[in-house]
From TrEMBL:
Keywords in alphabetical order: Membrane, Transmembrane, Transmembrane helix
TM region positions: 46-65, 72-88, 94-111
Protein name in UniProt: Uncharacterized protein
Length: 115
């Protein structure tokens, strides 16, 4: 978080200096730095996506619920990565819905594994 904040502060200062000289460069710089900020802790979706895909790969495939859970895990991963490249609340909301679905499926998969 501290790295992310430091980069953001320095970038805002730089962009405020160049925005009136070269607006296109300022926008491109901000869009590029925003990806780094998300990767360094501004976007918990990225970390959550990696976490879910790792656990999805560890799920024992023994029924339809576990197969669906693994596939939803891949979807969560890709949506988590997509949040770094879009500036849409819809993608972040979709990530939230997908990860809740994944948790429910993972729980059902674990319960059905015990039976």
């Amino acid at each position: 978080m501290f790295v992310s904040a430091s980069i953001a502060i320095e970038t805002v200062q730089y962009i405020s200096e160049i925005v009136f000289i070269n607006e296109k460069l300022a926008v491109e710089t901000w869009n590029t730095i925003r990806i780094l900020l998300e990767a360094f802790g501004g976007g918990n979706e990225i970390l959550g996506g990696f976490w879910v895909i790792l656990f999805s790969l560890l799920i024992k495939i023994d029924g339809i619920i576990s197969i669906v859970c693994r596939n939803v895990g891949f979807l969560v991963f890709f949506i988590g990565i997509a949040t770094a490249f879009t500036n849409s609340n819809y993608v972040e909301s979709l990530f939230g819905i997908a990860i809740i679905t994944w948790f429910l499926l993972a729980t059902l998969s674990k319960v059905s594994e015990r039976e």
